[in-house]
From TrEMBL, chain A:
Upper taxonomic lineage: Bacteria, Bacillati, Bacillota, Clostridia, Eubacteriales
Pfam families xrefs: ETF, ETF_alpha
List of residues binding FAD: N277
Listed name of the protein: Electron transfer flavoprotein, alpha subunit
Cofactor(s) listed: FAD
Keyword Repeat included in the entry's annotation: no
Highest taxon listed in the record's lineage: Bacteria
GO process terms (BP): fatty acid beta-oxidation using acyl-CoA dehydrogenase
GO MF term list: electron transfer activity; flavin adenine dinucleotide binding
PANTHER family: ELECTRON TRANSFER FLAVOPROTEIN ALPHA, ELECTRON TRANSFER FLAVOPROTEIN, SUBUNIT ALPHA (ETFA)
Co-factor note (free text): Binds 1 FAD per dimer.
Record family assignment: Belongs to the ETF alpha-subunit/FixB family.
UniProtKB keywords: FAD, Flavoprotein, Transport
Stretches assigned to the Electron transfer flavoprotein alpha/beta-subunit N-terminal domain: 4-180
Automatic annotation (TrEMBL), chain B:
PANTHER family attached to this UniProt entry: ELECTRON TRANSFER FLAVOPROTEIN BETA-SUBUNIT, ELECTRON TRANSFER FLAVOPROTEIN, SUBUNIT BETA (ETFB)
CDD domains tied to this protein: ETF_beta (cd01714)
Superkingdom of the organism of origin: Bacteria
Name this protein carries in UniProt: Electron transfer flavoprotein, beta subunit
InterPro entries: ETF_a/b_N, ETF_b, ETF_beta_N, Rossmann-like_a/b/a_fold
Ranges where the Electron transfer flavoprotein alpha/beta-subunit N-terminal domain occurs: 20-210
GO molecular function: electron transfer activity
Amino acid sequence: MAGILIYSDKTPYALELVTAGQIVAKDLGLPLQAVSINDADQAVELGKRVEVYKIANDDINLADTAAVASALKQTAEQVSANIILLSSNRRGKEVAGRLAQSLQAGCLSDVNSFTINSGKIECSRNALGGATVAVQQIETANQVIAIMPKAFEKAPEGSGSLHELTVEVRPRIKVLEVKPKAGDSVDIEAADILVAVGQGLENQGDLAKVEAIAKALGGEVACSKPIATDKKWLSEERIIGLSGKKCKPSLAIVMGISGQVQFTVGIRDAKTIVAVNNDENADIMRMADYIMVADLEDVLPELIQALS
Amino acid sequence: MNIVVAMKQIPDLQQVRIRNRQPVFEDVPYTLGNIDKNALEAGVALKEALDAKLIVVSAGNEELEDTIKEALAAGADEAYLVIDDSLDNIASDTSATLIAAAIKKIDDVGIILFGEGSGDNYSGQVASRVAEILELPEVGYAKEIELNGQSLRVTRSLEESEELVEVELPTVITVVSEINEARIPAVTQILKAGKKPKEVVSPHELEIAIGSVQVTTLSNLAPETDRKQIVVKSVDELVKALTTEGLIGR
Ligand SMILES: Cc1cc2nc3c(=O)[nH]c(=O)nc-3n(C[C@H](O)[C@H](O)[C@H](O)COP(=O)(O)OP(=O)(O)OC[C@H]3O[C@@H](n4cnc5c(N)ncnc54)[C@H](O)[C@@H]3O)c2cc1C
C-alpha cells in the first residue's frame, strides 16, 4: 500500500498541500489523492486538481479530533495511502499526532520545507524553540507530515476527479457555540515593512504612535506574543514568531522586544532588522543590522517627527 | 477523582548558547516547559473545584526527580515518574507510550492535561498520541475550562475562531498559555516539595520496550545570520541610513 493522501480543514491550505503532494508524488512515483470532510465546496475545488474523495457524514465534527483522525485513517486504508500530508494549523497539528499513533506512523509537524533524497522526505522544521532548524526524516512506512500554512503556493487548476467515500465514526465531542475572533484581517506576512513592538511599550496609549510610524512608512504594526495574548492590545493576527507568523519583510523595526528565540524565528528572514531597546545586551541586538540603545518613550515621538 | 498533568523536562532554552551554529547544552540546567506550567495551573484550579488529587506524570532521565520538584511546589500533590538513563531527548511517540502506560497505572483518572506544545520541540503530538492510545476524546487549545457535572465545557482557541465544546470525562485536554498565569513557586517551597509522594518506575517495570526509531534527525543547526550590527546614536542617523539603503522614503 503506497500513495499520498492530503487533507486540511481549510481549503486554501488544502490547495497548498496539493502542490506539496505533487512534488512528493513525482519524486517518489506515487499516486496523489485528497480527501475533504463535510465540505462540498472544498471537494469541488480539489476535484479540479487531484483525485478527491468526498466524505459527508454528520457524525464527524471537525472539533472532534478522534473522529477526524479515524475518518482519515479509514480513508488512507481505502485509497491505499501511506504518506499523509496535513496542514500544520491548530486543527491539523492536533489530528496529526492522533492519526500517526493510529497508523503506527512517524510524524513531523510544523514542516517549513522539504527535499526528497534517496526516497526519503527530508523535512525542515524549527527546533529548540526556534533557535535551530532541524532536518528530519520519518523512517516508518506510514508517515504523517503536517506542513506550515503558506509554505507552498496554491496549486493551479489542472485535471482531477471527484468520488464519494463513506466512513464510520463515533462522535464524542459536542460543539455548543462558535465565535469568530475579533476581525482583524491584517496580513503581516505580506507586509514589506513591519513595525513590531513588545513589552518595552509601557502604555497602551503609545500604540497610536506606533501606528503612526507604520503608516508613515507604508508598513504594518506587528507585535510579540505577550502584547496580544496577555495584554490584548493587538490582535493575535499580528504576532510574530513560533506560535505566530513567520515574516520576511524587507525592513523590520523591532522595538521593546527582548528577542527570545520564539520571537526571532518569525523575523530572522527579514532583509534588514532595526532593533530599538533600552538594554544594549538584549538578545535582539545580536541579530540586528541597526542597533539603537534608547528608550521608546523618546524614540517614538522622534521617529514620527523624522518621518513626517 | 484523579487529575493528571503531563509535563516535559527540557533544557532551559534561555541558557542554550549557539557555537559554530551548533546548540551547546553543556551546563544548561533542566526546567519544565512553559505551557506545561499553564497546564499544571489549570490542574490546580480543577483540583480545587473537584476536590480531586493532582498527579504530575513525566518521563525523562535521572535529573527528572529534581526537575519535577517545581511542579510539586506549584500545586501537584504527587508525582509519577518514568525514569531511565536512556530517556534523554526522547521522541514524541516514545514519550506518548510511556506517559500513557504511566496513566494506566493510576486509578480513576478523569482529566489529563497537557500544554499545547513542549517548550523545546513544540511538535504538539504527545497529547494526541496519548488520547489515541487510551482511546479517549481530546480537546485541544483550551483557553477556558468549566465544570458542568460529569462533563467539561471547554473554550478552544483556534486561529480564526473560538469554539465552545462539551466533552464527557475522562478526557485529554491541551491548554494554550493564555488560559492562566502560572504561579512561580519560591525556592523554599521547591525544597519543601521534595517531601511530597513520588513514585519512580522504569520503562521496564511498565513493560514498555522502547521501539525502533520513527524519526531520525539529519542535522540541527542554527540558521546562518549575517547582520550588519551598526550602532546608531540617534533617530536622525537611523532614518538617514535606512533612506540611503532605499528601505524607506521610496
Ligand atoms: C512554545 C512557546 C511559543 C512562543 N511563541 C511566541 C511567539 O510566536 N512570538 C513571541 O513573540 N513570543 C513567543 N513566545 C514567548 C517568548 O518566549 C517571549 O516570552 C516573548 O517573545 C517576550 O516578549 P517581549 O520581547 O515583548 O517581552 P520581554 O521579554 O519582556 O522584553 C521586553 C523588552 O523591552 C525592553 N524594554 C523595556 N522597557 C523599554 C523601554 N522603555 N524602551 C525600550 N525598550 C524597553 C526590555 O529591555 C526587553 O528587552 C513563546 C513561548 C513559548 C514557550
